[in-house]
């Protein structure tokens, strides 16, 4: 790798937005020409001082953007995150250290600001571990062979006193944010959604009309009429040669804040006439779905992969923000090549919360900050990481204790990419 110090890395000026988007499109292999609508739209939400460009002379050859986010810790507390997105380096300038420089600049600013963690969704697995990020949540997508699932073909709605109604985008913009707030107070790994998120998903804001298909939105209400779930889906128009419907329903989003809502909405989408296949979209890895079907084998895994990556910037704040599965004390030696969060920390944890402070006591578990990112939301196992040689027990049994404290009975999940 030849570092290119002649490349200027700095926040963009507003009049450089179009060139920055051109570089972004180029990095993601989209046609590079930028529409006026795209420039207008991005200007409404990008934060110029947190939108970095890498400039070779006047030409933008690298892009990197961050924005404030909240990610829900175990126990339901939202934690301040530096959300990273739009990371590209143009192929003519790759592997000269440009990403490394953009990342260092952004993470240093996030640390200075007092953000607890940084978050991102990785296009490719090998990129971000070197910067201290670890896989904190995973996702799964299933395809359901509806005729094989064994559901009752006479099903006509929930049998628990609740009901399902199709609603339009205006209704979703009222109901959706409230439901999502309930979800994120309960589900570790969920990130906040802003108003624009709902506008884009409901067609109130369409930047590229060619790529917009209006979806259906189904709301589940309980017997008291209270909304507990929202399912957004599209259906293709596919028939076989012998007058045979073979349509696929694609789930774009599903929020369920009670198991009743989750059961009813899955049953609903699998019962729409003409639909013979359901693609679930990216769901929690332990979604109830397969086991809601009389024949769970009708749900075939299409994707099972990492989703949210977390980089701990403030170990004390991150560990104090969450609750724990047991009461116990653990001394962690955190190794951080990035120089942001390393050190020895004593965690005094309990079901109600924790206190954490720097210590000089002997370390019980030594781990890289990226492994701490993987353990933080409770999904990964310290025992497994020890077996992989990725954490080191300095005291026998420390990894088991870490699992007893940190792991959760249901898995963390991030429904969104950003
Ligand atoms: C991924 C990308 C941003 C990397 O930018 P870059 O400027 O080439 O990265 P750097 O030169 O700073 O690389 C730093 C290190 O990461 C490694 N690296 C970078 N991208 C990698 C990749 N995709 N796979 C494996 N290793 C990678 C480099 O080899 C280098 O390793 P070294 O320190 O051991 O020499 C760039 O290749 C790109 O834009 N790819 C297409 C778009 C994309 O995937 N963006 C990420 C969206 S989440």
Report on the structure:
- Keywords: Acyltransferase, Transferase.
- Belongs to the acetyltransferase Eis family.
- This is GNAT family N-acetyltransferase.
- The protein has 418 residues and is of the alpha+beta class.
- It has helices spanning 17-27, 36-45, 98-113, 146-149, 169-186, 195-202, 259-269, 289-292, 315-320, 369-376, 382-387, 398-406, and strands spanning 8-11, 51-56, 59-72, 78-89, 117-121, 134-135, 138-145, 163-167, 216-221, 227-235, 239-240, 244-245, 247-256, 275-279, 299-306, 308-312, 328-335, 343-350, 353-358, 365-368, 391-393.
- The chain has 3 domains: 8-115, Aminopeptidase (3-Layer(aba) Sandwich), CATH 3.40.630; 140-300, 3-Layer(aba) Sandwich (Aminopeptidase); 314-406, SCP2 sterol-binding domain (Nonspecific Lipid-transfer Protein, Chain A, 2-Layer Sandwich).
- It is 27% helix and 32% strand.
- A 7-stranded mixed sheet has the order 1-2-3-4-5-16-6, with helices on both faces. Strands 8-9-10-13-14-7-15 form a 7-stranded mixed sheet, with helices on both faces. A 5-stranded mixed sheet has the order 19-18-17-20-21.
- The radius of gyration is 23 Å and the shape is globular.
- The mean pLDDT is 97.
- The protein binds coenzyme A.
Quickly describe the structure:
Homohexamer; trimer of dimers. The chain is of the alpha+beta class. The protein has helices at 17-27, 36-45, 98-113, 146-149, 169-186, 195-202, 259-269, 289-292, 315-320, 369-376, 382-387, 398-406, and strands at residues 8-11, 51-56, 59-72, 78-89, 117-121, 134-135, 138-145, 163-167, 216-221, 227-235, 239-240, 244-245, 247-256, 275-279, 299-306, 308-312, 328-335, 343-350, 353-358, 365-368, 391-393.
